[in-house]
Specification:
Elements lengths: L2 E6 L1 H5 L6 H11 L4 E7 L3 H12 L4 E5 L10 H9 L3 E3 L1 H13 L13 E3 L3 E3 L8 E6 L2 E6 L3 H19 L4 E9 L4 H7 L11 E7 L2 E10 L2 H19 L3 E4 L4 H12 L3 E5 L5 H7 L8 E6 L3 H8 L3 H7 L4 H15 L3 E7 L14 E8 L2 E8 L6 H20 L6
Parallel strand pairs: 1-2, 1-3, 3-8, 13-14, 13-15
Antiparallel strand pairs: 4-5, 6-7, 7-8, 9-11, 9-12, 10-11, 15-16, 16-17
């Protein structure tokens, strides 16, 4: 089976929006053993979209379309698909009822334009969308099966899992497909790949590969077999081998994040944490509280961006800042220790650094970051020198993740790194 991805929306071509859906779909389809052979991005032009549908349907077995299912005049997926199929649009009663129920559920009136989202080409199948207002569509067009999903990533991701994964498995003639993903932090992609290189040759089953995203190195394992249990057995054997080789670099699997894993470890131990942030500007607190149930272990934090607030809120001596600078091991240590005391918690993390692009010097360049971790056994501080080629956002993101990883390793009884 070969696939093509079509992304719709003039905003994708003008640069007003970035198409993250195509990359996600290629990654996810590839993990299922379905190669994506072409990406097509089109403006809101009904004739051009219909033509693209017909052309793709002559080449691909599976077409995934994102965008163009909204209620406005420039949402043209439904009409263009009907043109490509040579049929008319009809209103699906079940879809209309679901859309009306959605608006009742959020206590908002449904405007008349939303009724168009219940329209579907005659002969196609509406796909209920439990995460938004726009139903998806499944249609047979020439040799291809076409799935049209909303462009909202959260909705598209959920509908992909609901509708395309079973379709791919079914088309596999009863074969089993097992996907496992291990998440690692603390080493580069080349280092991770080197340790599992003999598991990664082309054509091997399971197929093993690595991807890097914002410091997180993911190891994907995809196994194919004559049955689902057999595929699971193959995949699980590789998971065990990769975990054995990479050891504590592996922090989790599938949708785990550093923050969710740290939260799980804290909850298991009945312990709490607080944060004292300067260069990260509250990002560690955000990552921790992105996790549902984090109030059980995250007690709070402070963003002491100015020197005066480091002194006023955290009790960092002004003379210490004057002597060593706000970006220093001494200040990071005092921030962590005093944060732990003020919040009466088991652990406290601190960050102070130069996120750039300005503010660096020969002695303290952009990318210099100190991270403090205070616990019952004292305070440890790590110095990191991130590349000044990183953007400001990247330096802040990496700093927050390094702080979380320090706490994760501490909770596991490991050295900082």
């Amino acid at each position: 089976m070969q696939a093509e991805v079509i992304s719709l929306g003039t905003e994708l071509l003008t640069g007003a929006s970035v198409d993250t859906n195509s990359a996600w779909l290629s990654d996810r389809l590839g993990a299922l053993g379905v190669p994506v052979r072409r990406h097509t991005t089109l403006a809101d032009d009904r004739d051009a979209i219909a033509s693209a549908f017909r052309e793709s349907a002559g080449r691909a077995d599976l077409i995934v379309v994102t965008g163009g299912l909204g209620p406005t005049q420039d949402d043209l997926t439904r009409a263009a698909l009907a043109d490509a199929m040579g049929v008319e649009l009809v209103t699906d009663a079940d879809s209309l009822a679901q859309i009306e129920a959605f608006f009742r559920g959020i206590n908002r009136p449904m405007v008349a334009s939303n009724r168009v989202q219940a329209e579907c080409p005659r002969g196609a199948t509406p796909l209920p969308n439990e995460w938004g207002t726009a139903p998806g569509i499944r249609a047979e067009l020439h040799r291809a099966t076409l799935f049209a999903f909303p462009g909202v990533p959260r909705e598209m991701h959920a509908m992909f899992e609901r509708y395309i994964v079973p379709f791919v498995v079914e088309r596999g003639s009863g074969q089993g497909i097992a996907l496992r993903v291990l998440r690692t932090y603390g080493a580069g992609e080349s280092n991770v790949a080197e340790q599992i290189a003999d598991l990664m040759p082309p054509g091997r089953n399971p197929a093993v590969g690595t991807t890097a995203s914002e410091g997180i190195i993911s190891v994907r394992i995809v196994a194919h077999a004559e049955s689902q249990p057999a595929a699971d057995t193959l995949a699980n054997a590789d998971v065990a081998e990769v975990r054995k080789r990479l050891g504590t670099l592996v922090y989790g699997a599938d949708d785990d994040t550093l923050a969710s894993v740290v939260g799980m470890l804290l909850a298991e131990r009945g312990q709490t944490v607080a944060t004292a942030e300067s260069c990260t500007g509250g990002l560690i607190a955000k990552l921790l509280t992105d996790v549902s149930g984090s109030s059980a272990y995250y007690v709070g934090g402070v963003v002491t961006y100015s020197n005066a607030q480091k002194t006023a809120l955290l009790g960092v001596p002004a003379e210490m800042i004057a002597a060593h600078g706000a970006v220093s091991e001494q200040v990071a240590r005092a921030m962590a220790a005093n944060c732990r005391e003020r919040f009466a918690c088991d652990h406290a993390m601190s960050t102070t650094g130069i996120a750039g692009p300005s503010g660096g010097s020969d002695d303290k360049p952009v990318g210099l970051v100190y991270i403090g971790l205070a616990g019952s056994d004292g305070v440890s501080v790590r110095e990191y020198r991130l590349s000044d080629r990183f953007s400001r956002d990247a330096i802040r993101d990496r700093s927050a993740k390094m702080a979380l990883n320090m706490l994760r390793r501490s909770l596991l009884g490991l050295s900082a790194e």
